[in-house]
Amino acid sequence: MKKGLIIVLVIVLVVGAGLVVTNFQSTGRATSTLTPGANYGPIDTGFNTFSKCEYLSVNDGWDLTVKGKVRALDMKRGVMMEREDSCDTDTKLSEYHCEDGYMKTRVAICPSAMICKDGACVNKE
Fold first, then answer.
1. Separation in Å, CA 3 to CA 13, 17, 62, 91, 98
2. Do residues 50 and 99 both lie within one domain?
3. For residue range 41-79, what is the model confidence (pLDDT) as tens digits?
4. Domain tally for the chain?
5. By residue range, what is the domain housing residue 9?
6. Secondary structure (3-state) at 16
7. Both 18 and 62 in a single domain?
8. Each residue of 2-20: pLDDT tens digit?
9. 102-109 and 79-84: which strand pairing?
10. In terms of domains, do 16 and 45 share one?
11. 45 and 19: one domain?
12. Rounded distance, CA 116 to CA 118, Å?
């Protein structure tokens, strides 16, 4: 009986550990979606002053192929503000995301077969 219980516990631990490893993303959140082949810069740490973050579009995580829009409270000025994903160059964009109630942003470069158009990475034509 003890041997069977130990085997079951080992299986549960191994499967559970595999789920944690496969779902963990570089943002430190298990629910964030990253775009394969994209090059992500660091998350801007100065955005912890923007609280009560909510999506005004679909929650795209860090998916560069979806243009997202968020709203958050600027705690320094006491006003709500909106930000949406936008192209900085033809291959680089600023991406916004809500995480733990705070608005986060980072700069990312589209995968090599894509360009940035209207705040999202799309296939080159």
1. 15, 21, 44, 56, 46
2. yes
3. 999 988 889 999 999 998 988 999 999 999 999 999 999
4. 2
5. 1-30
6. helix
7. no
8. 554 444 333 433 333 332 2
9. unpaired
10. no
11. no
12. 7
